[in-house]
Amino acid sequence: MDCIIETRKLTKKFGTFTANHDIDLKIAEGEIRAIIGENGAGKSTLMNMLYGILEPTSGTILCRGKPVQIKSPRDAISLGIGMVHQHFKLSPSLTIYENIVLGTEHVKEYKLGNRVIHGVLIDRKREKAEIQALVDKFNFNLDIEAKVSDISVGAKQRVEILKMLYRDVDILILDEPTAVLIPQEVEDLIRRLIDLKKAGKTIIIITHKLNEVKMCADNITVIRGGRVIGTVPNDDQTTDEDLAEMMVGRSVLLRVKKSGKPRSEKIAYRVSHISAVDSEGKKLLDDVSFSIHENEVIGIAGVEGNGQTELMQALTGTLELTEGCVEIGGLDVTGMWPDELRRHALGIVPEDRYRQGLCLGIPVSRNLIAGYHNQRPYCVAGIMQHQKIAENMDALVSAYDIRLGSKDPPVGSLSGGNAQKVIIAREFSRKPKVLLVSQPTRGVDIGAIEFIHNQILKMRDEGAAVLVISSELSEVVGLSDRVLVMYHGQIVGAFQSDAVSFNELGLYMSGVKRMDREAVSQD
What we know:
Number of helices: 18
Number of strands: 24
Mean pLDDT: 90
Shape: globular
Strand order of the largest sheet: 6-9-10-3-11-12
Radius of gyration: 26 Å
């Protein structure tokens, strides 16, 4: 096959930091190429240069064998390069066909003798015909007159792809394309990508999900530390473990191993019929109930935006409940603030580590006691005990493998994985009876994921009741004893994690199926 896109010694620097260093890459026409690597490895920077969002510091980009300068997305599209971003760029109030043609609308034309006069009104009939033909050509199964606000996440993904196909791109870049899709939508997307390849399109996928890479890629390029580590064919000789080792630089255990220790009969945490509304009275949580036993992990699965964030806020005292109560060991803790909850042995790992879990400008040592800073042994009679704080940091940095560039740097200088480890160390080291963990490994590299998963399971085996909320379905199922599914602010399904398939969970996550409330709330 002919090479359709190539980079030679492509380098991108931000000040003294080199995000991409001498990247050499060749992608053949009509192949599906996966670009994988840890967070911060330089994958998105490379793709943003190919799409004209960033300009290279040095090096060359060749398209169909000719050197090109790509200074904007408009330049990229003119060369046949399109990109679908992880966060969709659609207008919810417009229809599907209006979103696809946005910025390239057709105006009505009128014939006056031999002349064609362009009017000012949009030729909607022509636009609809063109978009319907495009949908039919690629079998994308969409109602082009439906509003984007009314369609599923998977359908929105297809609309984004059609936006690029409408602009006649031959090279399609997809950034984390399955991040918010349910299992059925993932399988559907992969089938469509394979069909696009058969139609002659070249697909480049940026992802960290190795199982999906193995389902569709022809070749896999691994980037680590801004450099290409290697490109390997996607065949039986290349395993997930091989790819993970290339990404991290050491062997990694990809699948968590549970101890098999049975849960206790004692309920440590009970949530009873809680509800919450927003400022306009719209229900965010609707009669949510569940219990967690000692030595048990409960996982919450669901497409993002279905109440998981609000549930965590309600359970940690930052969202006011309109109904219901929350108990720790039989004690009513409804509406308590986080510092009060911590006094009742509740640990909190928030969804957004930088906004809710850490103070970026202060040292690691102080972040390791945040929320506990006014308690002994760190504070006695209002006086901070600096020696105890330093001893605590030394112990936790060692026990939780937190990598520091200096003795006690600002936590904002750490990598995402090490910043997350600071929160994990702070909360887990207090040996809480109940542990609430939201998005524990978001933006974290594979090596740190392995460590964090093992720490969560260790807490479970030591007697804690653990709630895990994650957008990664494999993470929820892998860590949990039981899985609850949230949809539109309600718990609509409850399953033993070892007795349910991803496809079955997907039906509940999309609202196609639901259990009655009594079945869901059973312990």
